[in-house]
Amino acid sequence: MTTLSMHSASVPIFTRMLGNAGTWLDKAQAHAEAKKFDPSVYLTTRLAPDMLPFTTQIQIACDMAKFAVVRLSGVDGPTFDDTEKTLDELRERMRATAAFVQSVPAAKIDGTEDKDITIPRRAGPLTLKGEAYLKHFVLPNFYFHMTTTYALLRHNGVELGKMDFLGALQA
Amino acid sequence: MTTLSMHSASVPIFTRMLGNAGTWLDKAQAHAEAKKFDPSVYLTTRLAPDMLPFTTQIQIACDMAKFAVVRLSGVDGPTFDDTEKTLDELRERMRATAAFVQSVPAAKIDGTEDKDITIPRRAGPLTLKGEAYLKHFVLPNFYFHMTTTYALLRHNGVELGKMDFLGALQA
Asked: For chain A, does the N or the C end have fewer beta carbons within 10 angstroms?
């Protein structure tokens, strides 16, 4: 009998989606090569002029996962300088983020439902309980930025389907 | 001491996001009125020619939430005919979906981590355990279609920000 927990409801979701997104970047690179354009063109694309560009979508998705684990577990995470300029560097950012979140023992994340988590924000810091932080801040933000990354590639002609978004599902 | 559960990790996420999306439709309607175009124009917009249109994004998001509760709890849900033709009808679809998922007692959803859930798919039915179904099928699909709904409105000039996506966060 398995039971949902703060670890099982966070880290496996992050690692799975970040892995899926690696496949999207592979397909984006192949598309650019087939169409003979520089793959770095993707990095500055936006869905609206006042939305954040592709690179930033990936950086924020990674930071949502990293900081969720850092704040819930109390374990320090890696520092990233947000200087990625190529698809390869973005792929490496996702890989390093997935490796970090997987490296933290589940026991340090489980049981943090009631832990006070303080988020720095432009409007001033906000403190939420661990469970609300995960469910209503981390997960919607993480999926928002992953989905927007996917949408930007689809909008720019990369042939992706829902199964690329979800990844392989096996019984 | 609160503990994450199959109910607490699903229904509150659905009701919150569906409520937030109601606000997006309100702002979309106000934008259409200010710019003097028929708000039903939004309903057929797509981010790519081979992506599903706005209306379908909302219908699928609603169905992901509804079927998650139906399949996990074993309680029958409402039937929708996918005939929405206006923002008001889409708003009502989201309201009715939220009302249904909230109506099912938490006890019928909690403890379903190991329950076999069978999903009908074009490629043939797939059976997953309840926890994997929620984490790797329902949540990514639900957020995918909610984020794409939001992205379509942003792409079409509606003034929304991340706080409209997340909704109010309070300690």
From this structure: N
Collect all residues of chain B within an 8 Å Cβ-Cβ radius of residue A1: 113-114
Determine whether the interchain pair B4/A113 forms a contact, defined as Cβ–Cβ distance below 8 Å: yes
pLDDT of residue A59: 98
The torsion angles phi and psi of A105, rounded to 5 degrees, stand at -60, 140
pLDDT of amino acid B171: 62
Reading the block at residue B114, the tokens are 């190991």
| CB contacts, 8 Å: A51 with chain B | 154
Cα–Cα distance for residue pair A15/A12, rounded to 1 Å:
5
Q: Is B154 left (phi over 0), alpha (psi -120 to 50) or beta?
A: alpha
pTM comes to 0.97
Burial degree of B13 (CB within 10 A; 0-12, 13-18, 19+): buried
pLDDT in tens, B113-157: 999 999 998 888 999 999 999 999 999 999 999 999 999 999 999
The answer to whether the Cβ–Cβ distance between A166 and B48 falls below 8 Å is no
Distance between CA atoms of residues A58 and A71, nearest Å: 20
Give the CA angle between residues B76, B81, B86 to the nearest 5°. Answer: 125
Phi-psi region of B43 (alpha: psi -120 to 50; beta: other; left: phi over 0): alpha
ipTM value greater than 0.85: yes
Closest CA to A65 of A115, A26, A103, A25: A103
Per CB-CB distance under 8 Å, the chain A contacts of B141 are 162, 166
B-contacting residues of A 114-153, CB under 8 Å?
114, 126-129, 131-132, 134-137, 139-141, 143-144, 147-148, 150-151
- Cα–Cα–Cα angle for A41, A43, A47, nearest 5°? 100
Please indicate if any CB of chain A lies within 8 Å of the CB of B41. Answer: no
Nearest CA of chain B to the CA of A143: how many Å?
Answer: 6
User: Parallel, antiparallel, or unpaired for β A126-129 and B126-129?
Assistant: unpaired
pLDDT at position A122 is 85
**Checking DSSP bridges between strand B126-129 and strand B116-119, what pairing results, if any?**
antiparallel
